[in-house]
Each structure stands twice: as structure tokens, then as C-alpha cells.
Design a protein that fits this description.
Layout lengths: L1 H15 L6 E3 H8 L8 E5 L3 H10 L3 E3 L2 E4 L4 E7 L10 E5 L2 E5 L2 H14 L3 H14 L5 H11 L2 H18 L1
Length: 174
């Protein structure tokens, strides 16, 4: 994970000259917030100007393979699934990794992303990761924001159900 974060830091620095601020989303964000419990191999970024990013990656030895840029010798794959963040740019967290600033989707928006997959894809794994995020950050989460987003996404009932499960779990730990 650290190697991927350093790579994201390098890429972010390269993109700064183009006024592009990539945001880590998806599995890498989940791996970061779960302190490595979730593992992924590719890097998902939200950023405008895919062509500019692609040019920088290709200059760095990456090959375009479908929707990914991949470099085998460093085992890094990059995908830019969207140019627009599904969530609040004000909630994006900035993290320092050995002098590089990395921007990561906010906890609440990542939680909503996993909750949506839990409900609409019927993904038990995403239900589990939604609960894991709740357990890890229960007291830091903006529950009003989460409820508003879940209401908009049509997942409020499931959010409430998972929250109750987490609260019982946390009560049992005390």
C-alpha cells in the first residue's frame, strides 16, 4: 500500500503543474481507511483531463490496456473511472506521505459508495466493509451527512440497519 501511495504522491506532484488534483477512490481508499485490512492491486482515481494523465503515465513507462494504464515491472495499474467525484469535494482528506500530499475521498462518501454496492449489487462483501468503516470511525462520522446521502441514494433503511448492528457490536465491546 505504501508503494502505491508514494506513486500517487509522485503522480499528484506531476499533475500539479496542470492544475489537476487526483482523488483516490475505490479499493485504495478503502485499503487506506481500513489500515490495510482491505487489499487491492489497482489504483482508482477521480480526476479531469484523462488525456493529460495518460500522457504522463505513458512517459513514465505505463502501457494503456483498455481502461487501465499498467506497468508490469512495478506492478501498478491505474484507472480513472470518473472525472467527477461522487460525493463532496469539501470532505476530501489530504494526507502527507513522505512529503507528498495525497487526496482521498472522505470517509462518509466512501462509506456511501460501499453501502450502495451492498444494496444495489447485493454485495455481502460491501455490506461487511460498510460496517467495518462504521466500526473504525463511528465517533468521527458525520451521521447527519450520511443519512442525507443515504436518503438521496435510496439506501437509508440499510444504513440504519447496519448502524444498529455496529452499535450493538460496539456496546458488546465495552
Amino acid at each position: 500500500m505504501k508503494r502505491r501511495l508514494l506513486f500517487i504522491g509522485w503522480l499528484s506532484e506531476e499533475l500539479r503543474a496542470h492544475h489537476i488534483r487526483p482523488i483516490v477512490v475505490g479499493g485504495n481508499a478503502l485499503e487506506f481507511y481500513t489500515l490495510g485490512e482491505y487489499a487491492t492491486l489497482d489504483i482508482d482515481l477521480v480526476a479531469p483531463e484523462r488525456e493529460v494523465i495518460g500522457q504522463i503515465l505513458e512517459k513514465a513507462g505505463f502501457q494503456r490496456e483498455g481502461r487501465h494504464w499498467y506497468r508490469a515491472d512495478v506492478e501498478i495499474a491505474v484507472e480513472i473511472p470518473s472525472e467527477t467525484l461522487a460525493g463532496s469535494y469539501q470532505r476530501v482528506e489530504s494526507v502527507d506521505v513522505e512529503g507528498y500530499t495525497i487526496h482521498i475521498i472522505g470517509k462518509e462518501d466512501l462509506l456511501i459508495d460501499r453501502l450502495n454496492a451492498c444494496v444495489y449489487w447485493r454485495s455481502s462483501e460491501d455490506c461487511r466493509w460498510t460496517k467495518e468503516l462504521m466500526v473504525l470511525y463511528y465517533h468521527d462520522l458525520d451521521w447527519t451527512y450520511l443519512e442525507e446521502r443515504a436518503r438521496t441514494e435510496g439506501t437509508l433503511a440499510k444504513l440504519g440497519e447496519l448502524r444498529q448492528e455496529v452499535e450493538r457490536l460496539l456496546d458488546d465491546q465495552l
